[in-house]
Design brief:
The complex is a heterodimer of chains A (about 140) and B (about 280). In chain A, about 50% of the residues lie in helices and about 10% in strands. Chain A is mainly alpha-helical and about 140 residues long. Chain A has a two-stranded antiparallel ribbon. The two termini of chain A are about 25 Å apart. By secondary structure, chain B is an alpha+beta fold. Chain B contains ten helices and ten strands. Chain B has helices at about 1-5, 25-30, 50-60, 80-85, 110-115, 150-165, 165-185, 215-220, 235-240, 255-275, and strands spanning about 35-40, 65-70, 90, 105, 125, 135, 190-195, 205-210, 230, 245-250. In chain B, α3 links the parallel β1 and β2 (about 65-70). Chain B is globular and about 75 Å long. The two termini of chain B are about 40 Å apart. The chains are: A mainly alpha (about 140), B alpha+beta (about 280).
């Protein structure tokens, strides 16, 4: 599936929820389902700046594709992180760099993207693109 | 910042597990080498009201000037700067229902006269020469350039407004609200208060068992309840308590008991969703 197909699938999945509570319960569940990051990557260098909650991110380059693992100490943040990982992981560096993540806005989670919100989803997406860029060069 | 500029050493007054300053340790720290004591009147993280009078008296025995950060006090308590004999006091406008971008620094005349200007500009000079420039008198010496006229007027109005209600009445009302809030929230088993000082202003800082304060904040936000989450820019305090931060409900005189009930139900919802 392409990055946009995964985004569209998420949008469709969330369209089933009628209120914010179901939506956030789903995000919390996604956070619980996110595969844990390997302990050896849970270190200072892998922390994303600008997050109120701690977010660790690691990228691997295998067979021309980038695979991300991540974790957070806050469960809602972890859920948001898991969605971004789901969308961007397993694609080529070029696809990741050129991607436009419209699903956050479409799911009504735009507030989590703002710079004044301190969960740093924006910093996280930027960091993932930097990983992709590093793997190209 | 002073430490970097002047190679000063910063020593921190320790606190106990309730979030109160250890006054014996403080007194032991005082000697002739200390240049300035700087302390907040009310803690922004926990709401602890510090024993300012005692702090100032002890410092003055060694001739040490005291700077009081009253940013969290002036909107909750009646503050008399001459009575407490503070050398400096600072607070911000927006925290006392006034405009942003303006604040107040009070200083005793003897210190202000002894201090050089920190900024150059119009109005702060008496005569200008290439050899020597003479600075204007107080307060102009510290008011370089065009002042923030609009905000000054607005802050004046905000202070008049607070005085018209009366800070003693505000204090009584907020104390009642705080007590109601503590009583109500203490019935939630999963909730732990952070900062339980005997003298407290109307701030309730807490955490929920096993949940990150950010998560609790997101859910309360969805319910239309405005709280602050995070480390409140006091990471050393949070490290001391071994927590990433707290959820903080700050009560003001416009809040009501019904709103505390709403907060109570909101926290219950958060507990249920996050477990």
């Amino acid at each position: 599936m392409t990055i946009n197909e995964i985004q569209d699938e998420l949008i469709e999945e969330f369209s089933l929820f009628t209120d914010w509570m179901e939506k956030y319960e789903n995000i919390i569940q996604m956070g619980k389902d996110l595969p844990m990051i390997d302990d050896k990557f849970r270190k200072e260098e892998n922390l994303i700046r600008g997050c109120q909650a701690k977010v660790w991110l690691h990228g691997d380059f295998k067979g021309g594709k980038v695979y991300f693992t991540a974790d957070s100490d806050a469960i809602i943040t972890k859920g948001l992180v898991s969605m971004v990982v789901k969308v961007l992981s397993g694609h080529s560096p070029e696809e990741i760099m050129q991607s436009e993540l419209y699903f956050v806005d479409k799911l009504g989670l735009r507030e989590h993207l703002s710079m004044t919100r301190s969960n740093g989803l924006l910093s996280m997406i930027k960091q993932m693109k930097i990983y992709a860029m590093a793997f190209v060069s | 910042m002073l430490c970097e500029e002047r190679h000063a050493t910063l020593k921190v007054i320790p606190i106990n597990s309730r979030g109160e300053l250890l006054m014996d340790s403080y007194r032991e720290m005082l000697n002739e080498k200390v240049k300035l004591v700087s302390v907040n009147y009310v803690s922004n993280s926990f709401g602890t009201i510090n024993p300012i009078q005692e702090i100032i008296e002890s410092a003055h025995k060694f001739g040490i000037p005291v700077l009081i950060d009253a940013a969290q006090a002036v909107q909750h308590l009646a503050v008399d700067v001459s009575e407490m004999d503070a050398d400096f006091m600072a607070f911000s406008g927006h925290k006392m229902y006034g405009p942003t971008g303006i604040g107040v620094l009070y200083g005793k005349e003897k210190w202000l006269n002894a201090m050089p200007p920190f900024q150059a500009g119009g109005e702060m000079i008496k005569t200008v020469g290439f050899d020597k420039t003479f600075y204007n008198d107080l307060p102009f010496k510290f008011e370089a350039g065009t002042p923030n006229i609009e905000a000054s007027i607005c802050l004046g109005v905000a202070i008049d407004y607070l005085n018209s209600i009366g800070l003693d009445r505000i204090r009584d009302y907020e104390e009642d609200l705080l007590q109601y809030g503590i009583d109500r929230l203490s019935t939630i088993d999963e909730l732990q208060f952070v900062g339980t000082a005997e003298h407290k202003s109307s701030v309730i800082s807490f955490n929920i068992d096993g949940s990150h304060p950010y998560d609790v904040g997101v859910i309360l936000d969805q319910l239309g309840i405005a709280v602050r989450t995070g480390h409140h820019c006091t990471q050393p305090l949070m490290d001391l308590f071994g927590i990433p931060g707290t959820v903080r409900a700050s009560l003001a005189f416009y809040n009501t008991r019904e709103e505390i009930d709403t907060l109570f139900h909101g926290i219950q919802k958060a507990v249920q969703m996050l477990k």
